[in-house]
Write a structure and sequence with these properties.
The complex is a heterodimer of chains A (110) and B (116). Chain A is an all-beta fold and 110 residues long. Helices cover 0% and strands 56% of the residues of chain A. Classes of the chains: A mainly beta (110), B mainly beta (116).
C-alpha cells in the first residue's frame, strides 16, 4: 500500500470556482502534514503546513482528519495562477523522511 | 529569505560517466535530502542526511550513489556510473532548525540530469 495517495486529476475548473483535494496516508504514526505546489519542471514549493485544528491562509484552507487518516486542501475563488500540481506530503515522527503523494493536477480555465 | 541553491541547473553526461550534483542547504538547517523526479512522474525520495551521516535511504539509492558534506556548507550527490534511467530532475532539500523538528522541506530549484 502506498504511503500517501492522491487523486491525480486533472481537475478542470473555471475561474472563481471552489475546488477541494483529498489525500490519504497509511502510517497512523505520521505527525507532520504539508501541501506543496509544483509548477511544470520546477521545484515543489511549500503552500502550507496542515495543523490538527485546521488552518487557513487567504483562499486556501487545509484540514486534517486523523481518525480517517486524510488531509484536504480547499481553494476558494480559483485564479488562473492556481493552475499547478498540488502535492500532499507526510512525515512520520522520528523518521527522517518525507513521503510524497503523486500529486493532483489543477487546471483553472478562464 | 534563505534559499537552497543547486548547481549546475542542467548537466548532460554520457552513460557510464560519473557526475556530482552540488547543493548548498539553508545554513541553520540540520537535515538534508536528495529527491529525484523523472519527467511526468512523482517526486521520489533518495536519501536523508543528518549529523554527517546517512539517516535513511531508499531502494533507489544503491551502491552507484553516494552523498557527502565535504566542508560544512556543500552537500553533494555523486552517481558513479550513470545509466540512461538516471535521467531526471534531482532536487536537494533541507529542513529542521534546532527549534522545530517538524519543519517543512525547503527545495532547491533542481539539477536536470540528462544521460545520453
Amino acid at each position: 500500500r502506498k504511503e500517501v495517495e492522491q487523486d491525480p486529476g486533472p481537475f478542470n475548473v473555471p475561474e472563481g470556482a471552489t475546488v477541494a483535494f483529498n489525500c490519504t496516508y497509511s502510517n497512523s504514526a505520521s505527525q507532520s502534514f504539508f501541501w506543496y505546489r509544483q509548477d511544470c519542471r520546477k521545484e515543489p514549493k511549500l503552500l502550507m503546513s496542515v495543523y490538527s485544528s485546521g488552518n487557513e491562509d487567504g483562499r486556501f484552507t487545509a484540514q486534517l482528519n486523523r481518525a480517517s487518516q486524510y488531509i484536504s486542501l480547499l481553494i476558494r475563488d480559483s485564479k488562473l495562477s492556481d493552475s499547478a500540481t498540488y502535492l500532499c506530503v507526510v512525515k512520520a515522527h522520528n523518521f527522517n523522511k518525507f513521503y510524497f503523494g503523486s500529486g493532483t493536477k489543477l487546471n483553472v480555465k478562464p | 529569505e534563505p534559499e537552497v541553491t543547486q548547481t549546475p541547473s542542467h548537466q548532460v553526461t554520457q552513460m557510464g560517466q560519473e557526475v556530482i550534483l552540488r547543493c548548498v542547504p539553508i545554513s541553520n538547517h540540520l537535515y538534508f535530502y536528495w529527491y529525484r523526479q523523472i519527467l511526468g512522474q512523482k517526486v521520489e525520495f533518495l536519501v536523508s542526511f543528518y549529523n554527517n551521516e546517512i539517516s535513511e535511504k531508499s531502494e533507489i539509492f544503491d551502491d552507484q550513489f553516494s552523498v557527502e558534506r565535504p566542508d560544512g556548507s556543500n552537500f553533494t550527490l555523486k552517481i558513479r556510473s550513470t545509466k540512461l534511467e538516471d535521467s531526471a530532475m534531482y532536487f536537494c532539500a533541507s529542513s529542521g532548525d534546532r527549534s522545530s523538528y517538524n519543519s517543512p522541506l525547503h527545495f532547491g530549484n533542481g539539477t536536470r540530469l540528462t544521460v545520453t
